[in-house]
């Protein structure tokens, strides 16, 4: 199968490749054309996933397609953007029809969930890797940056953290499990749900935001640095799923929640007066701490005492 036939059959023909919305022209020409409404800004992010580095090889190609698009689209959620579309630069060792069909199906599933469209890409032979570039739009000046957090704001997250890290031993085949807990965690790892609607609801309200990809502590450190403030996290308020606590035990679950990445839940700073309205609207917001004067991130126990942490993450567990 030639390069053009492959592109035509698996990507141009995919449901997610249909033009529409802000996509004026999709796959097939030298470039795609996007219509950005007047008064809005284009929001762009790119991510590369390499086999054996960012995902195990081999793995289920349908799940890989879902995860690749979710991971990239989550950056749009973190900016409060409305998704438009994405490009896919794919490097493949060989054109295997079953693999390509399943991978494209995974892209389709996540694209439908995120209202994304495949607008172009590049296809080359080489070790398995993929670069997805996502495009979105936001009303001018309303993108959620990492840099606006203010002393006195609440520190919030958009849901439970740690599930994807809890799933890692299963993903890597170091641990077996067929329980309901194991499959719930695996689902969080392979099919994270970018919090696009929450991000959009936070426009004009949150003062800083990002999506948690490296771990709660590390990513809060990014907000602290960009905003020149200190983020105080109350350990007891870090939301952990029942599945994770049952699967890993409370201590390990907390470690996953603090230091594990790959959850793609939003973390953000919110002025106190904004919280009641957002909760009344039903957003799954959990307050985990506050913004203080200072720098870096601190972790507090139930008595308000500092829990020691290191740069790599949580380092408190009794060995
Ligand atoms: P060019 O020679 O201009 O780089 P290509 O032959 O690489 O064009 O691609 C032809 C068309 O197919 C372009 O519209 C390109 O965006 C699209 N395309 C190539 N690879 C992919 C892919 N993996 N997914 C989606 N679209 C693709
Ligand atoms: Mg090309």
UniProtKB/TrEMBL annotation:
List of residues binding Mg(2+) 3: 30, 75, 211
Residue ranges of domain PurM-like N-terminal in the record: 28-138
Keywords: ATP-binding, Kinase, Magnesium, Metal-binding, Nucleotide-binding, Thiamine biosynthesis, Transferase
Name of the gene encoding the protein in the UniProt record: thiL
Binding site for Mg(2+) 1: 46-47, 122
Similarity comment: Belongs to the thiamine-monophosphate kinase family.
One MF annotation (Gene Ontology) recorded for this entry: thiamine-phosphate kinase activity
The protein's Enzyme Commission number: 2.7.4.16
The protein's name in its UniProt record: Thiamine-monophosphate kinase
InterPro entries the UniProt entry points to: PurM-like_C_sf, PurM-like_N, PurM-like_N_sf, ThiL-like
Positions that bind Mg(2+) 4: 30, 45, 75
SUPFAM superfamilies attached to this UniProt entry: PurM C-terminal domain-like (SSF56042), PurM N-terminal domain-like (SSF55326)
Source species taxonomy: Bacteria, Pseudomonadati, Pseudomonadota, Gammaproteobacteria, Pseudomonadales
Reaction(s) the record says it catalyses: thiamine phosphate + ATP = thiamine diphosphate + ADP
UniProt-annotated binding residues for Mg(2+) 5: 214
Residues holding Mg(2+) 2: 47, 75
Pfam families cross-referenced by the UniProt entry: AIRS
């Amino acid at each position: 199968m030639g390069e053009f036939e492959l592109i035509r059959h698996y990507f141009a023909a995919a449901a997610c490749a249909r033009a529409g919305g802000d996509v004026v022209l999709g796959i097939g020409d030298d470039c795609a054309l996007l219509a950005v409404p007047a008064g809005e800004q284009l929001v762009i992010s790119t991510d590369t996933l390499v086999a054996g580095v960012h995902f195990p090889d081999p793995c289920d190609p349908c799940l890989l397609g879902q995860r690749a698009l979710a991971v990239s689209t989550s950056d749009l959620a973190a900016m409060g953007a409305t998704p438009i579309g994405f490009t896919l630069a794919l490097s493949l060792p060989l054109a295997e029809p079953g693999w390509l069909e399943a991978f494209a199906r995974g892209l389709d599933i996540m694209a439908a969930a995120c209202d994304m469209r495949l607008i172009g890409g590049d296809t080359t032979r080489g070790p398995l890797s993929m670069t997805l570039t996502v495009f979105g739009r936001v009303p001018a000046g309303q993108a959620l940056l990492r840099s606006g957090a203010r002393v006195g704001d609440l520190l919030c997250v958009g849901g439970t953290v740690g599930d994807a890290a809890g799933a890692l031993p299963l993903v890597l085949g170091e641990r077996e499990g067929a329980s309901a807990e194991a499959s719930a965690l695996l689902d969080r790892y392979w099919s994270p749900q970018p919090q696009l609607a929450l991000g959009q609801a936070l426009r004009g309200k949150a003062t800083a935001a990002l999506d948690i990809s490296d771990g709660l502590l590390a990513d809060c450190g990014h907000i602290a640095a960009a905003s020149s403030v200190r983020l105080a996290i109350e350990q007891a308020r870090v939301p952990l799923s029942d599945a994770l606590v049952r699967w890993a035990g409370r201590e390990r679950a907390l470690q996953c929640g603090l230091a594990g990445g790959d959850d793609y839940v939003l973390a953000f700073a919110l002025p106190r007066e904004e919280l009641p309205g957002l909760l009344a609207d039903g957003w799954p917001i959990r307050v985990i701490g506050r913004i203080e004067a200072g720098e870096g991130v601190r972790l507090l126990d139930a008595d308000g005492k500092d829990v020691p942490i290191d740069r790599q993450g949580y380092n408190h567990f009794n060995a």
